[in-house]
Amino acid sequence: MAEGYATARPPVHTFVLDRVRKTLGERLNPRRALDVGCGAGLSTKPLVAVSEFCLGIEPMEAMLKFAPGVAPGARFIAGAAEAMPVRSHVFDLMTAAGSLNYVNLGRFFPEAVRVLAPGGFLVVYDFSAGRSFRSSEELDLWFGHFQARYPVPISEAIKLTPEILERLDSGFRLEDHEYFETGIRMTPEAYGAYMMTETNVALAVRGGALEADIRDWIRETLGPVFGGPEREVLFRGYFACMEPVHGPSSRHFQG
Questions:
Q1: How many C-alpha atoms does 44 have within 13 Å on its Cβ side?
Q2: What is the dihedral of CA 70, 102, 62, 47, to 10 degrees?
């Protein structure tokens, strides 16, 4: 899974960071950037180009094996979002790409306030699996068959949206947000490799299914769906730009 994240996940993160930079404009000029829950480094990679120093933190050490190759120029350490092993008030930008859904928010937000420098931003974002073409339902139908054949595991993830983040007494205020849709052109081979990194495939393999059999089924069924060398696959998600509120609420969290 770690290798798949490093090599087969689509580069949606770059699009998101570009949108964030357009939204915040001159207010976003980070010298030091921190990526919380960086995984294999795909979400860290676009930060390297916009900051002088970039650090990724990831609790699963297996993911970090591939991160330096994915995001050259960044540094990576193992650590938890709830207890980040970094100095206080040093990062101008902190990003969290789909990682806060799995952390203790009551412990994370005070840590984020501690770590961010004055004027710094926390950018929380996430996007769902690419499962749609722009002009037909063929990929949506295929994705439904894919999940019926290989069921999605029960998730303990916390649901987060800009509206939910705004309501939390987190010590942050929501400065801006956006729901987005972006298209990425993918070959059926690239899309199939991407699907092999999904959690339902991992669950199927843990249950005894053979990776080769899953890969063969994906390859055989995707070809007719794509009907050519490549198609544009749509990814939908959100980002929320948040700024610390300096006052009593920045020291307490009530979820």
A1: 31
A2: 20
pTM of the model: 0.92
Tokens of residue 39, six digits:
């995984």
| CA pair distance 244, 249, nearest whole angstrom | 9
Residue 54 pLDDT: 98
**pLDDT at residue 1, as a whole number:** 74
| Domain housing 178 | 2-251
CA dist., res. 2 & res. 250, Å (int): 35
Going by their DSSP bridges, the two strands 231-244 and 116-127 should be labelled as antiparallel
Q: What is the per-residue pLDDT for 142?
A: 98
Q: What is the DSSP letter of 21?
A: H
CATH of the domain at 67: 3.40.50.150
d(CA 204, CA 180): 31
Report residue 45: phi and psi, to 5°.
Answer: -50, -50
DSSP 8-state class, residue 229 = S
Domains identified in the chain, total number: 1
- State residue 181's pLDDT score: 97
Task: Transcribe 85-119 into DSSP letters.
Answer: -S-SS-EEEEEEES-GGGS-HHHHHHHHHHHEEEE
Helix (H), strand (E) at residue 70: helix 67-70
SS3 label, residue 143: helix
Nearest to 94 by CA among 238, 242, 237: 242
